């Protein structure tokens, strides 16, 4: 920690030095109007123009903000000890007994989600999938599950072409629907499952999100669309509390799309293989930085994202590492396996 603060402080000094240099450049001719003259006997009183004062203030604010960003970045570079996370040890509930009929609401018609697969692969959005050449293997699977707006085009060699289910968060609805060629017409016969708070996702909600999904579903009748029922959303919250001992709302936690997708996969599939999800202890000993998404090579670093969310206490945050600890416990119960990277054993906690 001390080394991180020291390096951050050093960088702050550099920023301040350059800021004061700019300030001096701005004010020098006014504060010292005779600085270049040999006659120093006569001096006049001068005033700093208002706009230059604002410039100086903004430069100082910029320096301080830069320092805070650097300090935060350095703190998140520290190894993360996942064993510090305390979650409950117990036998997981039988998610497969939840039932599909009352958990998913058909957006058009009276459709019922009754698709069941013996074997599924869950293709994450992780950059660990790049250069794996897994596309053919994924396409040979009985059912393929994808998440949010993770694209296929240009990544077929590594992530495949086939899509059976796509689980979409309310925050990703627009990103999915504004690219129908990629996410709707490309995989006829697929099922889209949307999740989100009732205020946004139900037919009588004040927002038009549900109706937008409904119109898109009508325009692409070969695609089935469902939203999670309020009862099912409550189940996901209860499951998080049961498995972690934390109340989602009181702990300021947002459940991730990965959490919803894993539970849905267990409901729909007798066996699940997950590609690209890192184990819970990964960020304690990672070798190098990796982008968070395979389709955003210049996006945020995955471990920085995980650790910032796990440590966050103000505002709402995903608890990615806590969720992965739960998934590790579920592996033997629900016949879940992981690769790229492989999970060798359930971490001790």
UniProtKB/TrEMBL annotation:
Its main location: Golgi. The keyword Glycosyltransferase applies. It comes from the Eukaryota. GO terms for molecular function: alpha-N-acetylgalactosaminide alpha-2,6-sialyltransferase activity. The chain crosses the membrane at residues 12-34, 55-73. It is a single-pass type II membrane protein. It is found in: Golgi apparatus membrane. InterPro entries: Glyco_trans_29, GT29-like_sf. The keyword Transmembrane helix applies. It catalyses: N-acetyl-alpha-neuraminosyl-(2->3)-beta-D-galactosyl-(1->3)-N-acetyl-beta-D-glucosaminyl-(1->3)-beta-D-galactosyl-(1->4)-beta-D-glucosyl-(1<->1')-N-acyl-sphing-4-enine + CMP-N-acetyl-beta-neuraminate = N-acetyl-alpha-neuraminosyl-(2->3)-beta-D-galactosyl-(1->3)-[N-acetyl-alpha-neuraminosyl-(2->6)]-N-acetyl-beta-D-glucosaminyl-(1->3)-beta-D-galactosyl-(1->4)-beta-D-glucosyl-(1<->1')-N-acyl-sphing-4-enine + CMP + H(+); 3-O-[alpha-Neu5Ac-(2->3)-beta-D-Gal-(1->3)-alpha-D-GalNAc]-L-Ser-[protein] + CMP-N-acetyl-beta-neuraminate = a 3-O-{alpha-Neu5Ac-(2->3)-beta-D-Gal-(1->3)-[alpha-Neu5Ac-(2->6)]-alpha-D-GalNAc}-L-seryl-[protein] + CMP + H(+); a ganglioside GM1b (d18:1(4E)) + CMP-N-acetyl-beta-neuraminate = a ganglioside GD1alpha (d18:1(4E)) + CMP + H(+); a ganglioside GT1b (d18:1(4E)) + CMP-N-acetyl-beta-neuraminate = a ganglioside GQ1balpha (d18:1(4E)) + CMP + H(+). Belongs to the glycosyltransferase 29 family. This is Alpha-N-acetylgalactosaminide alpha-2,6-sialyltransferase 6. It comes from Engystomops pustulosus (Tungara frog).
